[in-house]
Amino acid sequence: MTGMKNTSRQHPLPTIVWLIITALTLTLGNLRADDSPSRTIVVVGDSISAAYGIATEDGWVALLQKKIEDESFNMTVVNASVSGDTTANGLSRLPNLLTEYQPALVVIELGGNDGLRGLSVKKLKSNLNQMAAMARDSGAEVIIVSVQLPGNYGKAYNNLFAKAFASAAEDTNSTLVPSLFEGLDASKKWFQADGIHPGVLAQPVMLENVWQVATPLLEKITTQ
């Protein structure tokens, strides 16, 4: 009929539908992010990383897992450290660890026992190189952690020992922690009675030394 006005209101259905679709898209995107599989970090170390003499949950590797959770990185830390291990032991264990965990990041904290036993620095470096190269060939990022020996091992040997870690990291395009013990002195405040193994108070300091160089790698891994 002519002249009749349409007094019915027009519902903004397109806008409502668009808002619903947008909300669903964001929700599904968040679900996909939350449900994405956790990436794995494998720490291959000796007693320093195995929390020798202290509770496991107080060790720097356990603190690393907590830090990762606090910073909302979707990653799980596997502590594959064994007290007494040398770089040769780590090299022999690494293939199975890579197969089992398929890590996105491998942290190598070995060499202290090589030094304490006066083993060849050349062999130490060779073992570190092989471990790092093997891990990188598997697709993992690699961190090599430099450790220090007590001063009574002599300046010449200690200098060669320290350079082996930096050289291995450079050779394999790995990331270097220049010193796990940075910020610690030889006082009883930081070390246990043997003067070699760090105590509970030292663990957060050690974690921070690792965390400073690990953060860019974690960001890289979680955005891949």
Question: How would you characterize the overall build of this protein?
Answer:
There is one protein chain. With 224 residues, the chain is of the alpha/beta class. It has one domain (39-222): 3-Layer(aba) Sandwich (Rossmann fold). It has helices at 13-35, 60-70, 87-101, 112-116, 121-137, 155-171, 203-222, and strands spanning 39-45, 75-79, 105-109, 141-145, 175-177. Strands 2-1-3-4-5 form a 5-stranded parallel sheet, with helices on both faces. Helix 2 packs across helix 7 (203-222), helix 3 packs parallel to helix 5 (121-137) and helix 5 packs parallel to helix 6. The radius of gyration is 25 Å and the shape is globular.
Short description:
The protein is an alpha/beta fold and 224 residues long. Helix content is 48%, strand content 11%.
SSE arrangement, N to C:
HEHEHEHHEHEH
The main β sheet shows up as:
5 strands, parallel
CATH architectural category: 3-Layer(aba) Sandwich
CATH topology: Rossmann fold
Strand-helix topology:
Elements: H1 13-35, E1 39-45, H2 60-70, E2 75-79, H3 87-101, E3 105-109, H4 112-116, H5 121-137, E4 141-145, H6 155-171, E5 175-177, H7 203-222
Parallel strand pairs: 1-2, 1-3, 3-4, 4-5
Helix pairs in contact: 2-7, 3-5, 5-6
Which key features would you list for this structure?
224 residues, alpha/beta, 7 helices, 5 strands, 11% strand
